[in-house]
TrEMBL record:
Protein name as it appears in the record: Putative glucose-6-phosphate 1-epimerase
Source organism, top-level taxon: Bacteria
Catalytic activity, reaction form: alpha-D-glucose 6-phosphate = beta-D-glucose 6-phosphate
Family: Belongs to the glucose-6-phosphate 1-epimerase family.
Gene3D superfamilies, sorted: 2.70.98.10
Alphabetical UniProt keywords: Isomerase
The UniProt record lists the keyword Isomerase: yes
Name of a matching Pfam family: Aldose_epim
A GO biological process held by the record: carbohydrate metabolic process
Native species: Granulicella tundricola (strain ATCC BAA-1859 / DSM 23138 / MP5ACTX9)
Length: 297
């Protein structure tokens, strides 16, 4: 659908409008409860700000907005693999979903919440990478809180094994003064240190260097302490949590991130990766959910 058709079919007067940005289609949401921006490219939520609060998501001002590139910041949807593809097989980092155009299936205002569903089915790119029999529905409920539901269905004849992540970049005042509660004494794989297995200290986590930690079999809720506010992530059907910040060392390798931007965000990701990957029998489906709420410290 072109912009006119999208606005005719799914636009909500004064609440939800589709527009072009750099050749990509995005939609802007404005309600008494929040403002939000979603790109159909990657089903990428780049902005969510409850009324009266600071923006919750970080977006790199050097991000590419191009059909073959992932947006840096917001919430990239990683599917059907996380990080580099296993087994040395070809394919983009974190899967193809974040660089494919998604379709709008549903948009409505219910009370003060906008309910939006975007879908992704097989594309030329996914087929070229061997993924044919799947469908993904991504439901967002945008209001004072944010609910994200990623449902994957197997329409193929064989088993479908996949990894997934909502790679959320939270905007924070200063990462070295930010706490992450909920991962106390938790086991993690340290991707910055040869995949060694380690355990976090018994108190809330405060990052002090380049961080790339995968917490397997971890269903805990996490709460980010960002100065006077807290950001809580409650999740269901997600067995992996990932915490990432590139720090100075990692940032210099990322062309789409200002080298001094890293103190302003932390990624706390709701995921199913590695041993927690999902395997679906034909006609089966699985839903992973994250719910993000703001509070006072
Ligand atoms: O640069 P990308 O592909 O968006 O990935 C960013 C980071 O994403 C994190 O989730 C991974 O654990 C890191 O290993 C990776 O570097």
């Amino acid at each position: 659908m072109n912009l006119t058709e999208l606005n005719d079919h799914f636009g909500l007067s004064g609440v939800l409008t589709f527009e072009d940005h750099n050749g990509l289609t995005r939609l802007q949401v404005k309600t008494p409860a929040c403002t939000a921006t979603v790109y159909l490219h990657g089903a990428h939520l780049t902005h969510w700000q409850p009324t009266g609060a600071q923006p919750v998501l970080f977006l790199s001002d050097r991000s590419d907005f191009a059909p073959d590139k992932a947006i840096r910041g917001g919430i990239p949807v990683c599917f059907p693999w996380f990080g580099p593809r296993a087994g040395g097989k070809p394919g983009p980092s974190h899967g193809f979903a974040r660089i494919q155009p998604w379709e709008v299936a549903f948009a409505a205002l219910s009370g003060e919440n906008v309910h939006l569903t975007l879908t992704l089915g097989p594309t030329a790119l996914s087929r070229s990478l061997g993924f044919d029999g799947f469908r993904v529905a991504y439901e967002m409920v945008l209001g004072k809180k944010l609910t994200l539901r990623l449902t994957v269905a197997n329409y193929g004849e064989g088993m479908l094994k996949y990894e997934e992540a909502l790679h959320t970049y939270f905007s924070i005042g200063e990462v070295r003064r930010t706490t992450i509660a909920g991962l106390e004494s938790a086991l993690f794989v340290d991707k910055t240190d040869g995949l060694k297995e380690k355990e976090t200290p018994p108190e809330a986590l405060i990052l002090s260097g380049q961080t790339d930690r995968v917490f397997p079999e971890n269903v805990s809720s996490t709460t980010i302490g960002d100065g006077p506010r807290t950001i809580t992530i409650n999740k269901s059907n997600s067995a992996t949590t990932v915490v990432w910040n590139p720090w100075t060392e990692g940032s210099v390798t990322l062309k789409d991130l200002r080298p001094d931007a890293w103190p302003g965000f932390v990624c706390v990701e709701t995921a199913n990766t590695g041993e927690d990957a999902i395997t679906l029998a034909p006609n089966d489906a699985h839903t992973m959910q994250a719910e993000i709420t703001l509070g006072k410290a």
